[in-house]
Here is the input.
Amino acid sequence: MALERSPEKPYSFVPLPERAERGPCAGHHLFAAGTETGSLECRLALLRPVQVAAGVLDLIRGPRGEEHIAALPAGVPRAGRRVYVVPGSSLKGALRSLAEAVSFSCFGVAAPRVRGHIPEPLRRCTRLDRLCPACRLFGITGARRESYMGSVHVTDAELPPDGKVAVVRTPLLWTPARGQRLPNLYLRGRQLRGRKFYFHGRAAPGPDVRVALPEGESLQATVYFDNLSPGLLGLLLAAMGLHPAHRFPIKLGGGKPVGMGSLEVRLVAAVLRGAVAAGGRLGAGERRLTGDELRRWVAERCRAAEDEGLLYREGLERVAAILARRGLETRPMPSGPY
Ligand SMILES: [Zn+2]
Here is the structure.
């Protein structure tokens, strides 16, 4: 009797490092020596429809005049109209989970059923003088006074004024293993398999109607950073898929298991702000890096991430393999339960 083959899972796991590399955060009260402060001007090239839902449903009309109830994407009010966005908080969250996976970082956020399986050395950071690289970049909410807002801030990426939203039909999705204990496929023995990431793939069609930002659109986003060592900056760049030897598009928002949410971060420029001491009260002005100078700067920062012992190479290689761009064309995503 032939066994029924279930479709391949649309995700894989990045193994956990054995330890977290903890140290103090630089804080926000001064420009710390040996660190950099500035911004990364980026374009988000949408390789698949991207939907960060607003939690609002509306009736929309389909191509044949039929009406559907669909989830609307997040938006912000601008001059009396609603501008749809990829919220900065969503991009920041996606970058954080990638930064955790490619560095010696703690397992910061975990569902209650996962928490008990996290290895002791990777339990979430709780003290400001002992923060892992991801917590130094993106902050923590801790007990008593041990909270830190992080050194990375991301703007909302707005759909341009002439941009149109897209109506996308996807398979229905359910919460994985709803109401059950941790499914065995997340564990090897008693050990967690690692951090879960979805592959890029071909969009699977289905009956669920969503309104999304369309494939092919390009949005502007700025990532601000302050007081980052060259290595922490390199880690941030690697998490954005910009490590010269390990480039990959990232995934974000809803519908990741069915092929949505793929986007490429393209770095247009890095703007570095000088120390106040070097140029008086208003600082030493700005230095804007583009082209070859920018490429060299990125490569040097990524090397520094390794030199400073922050970059978990095995994790980065695995992330780059899971998020390999060729999956967009070659990998079918499941259109039914998997
Ligand atoms: Zn941490």
Summary: The pocket of zinc ion is lined by residues 105-106, 108, 124-125, 131-132, 134-135 (CB under 6 Å). The chain has one domain: 20-330. The radius of gyration is 21 Å.
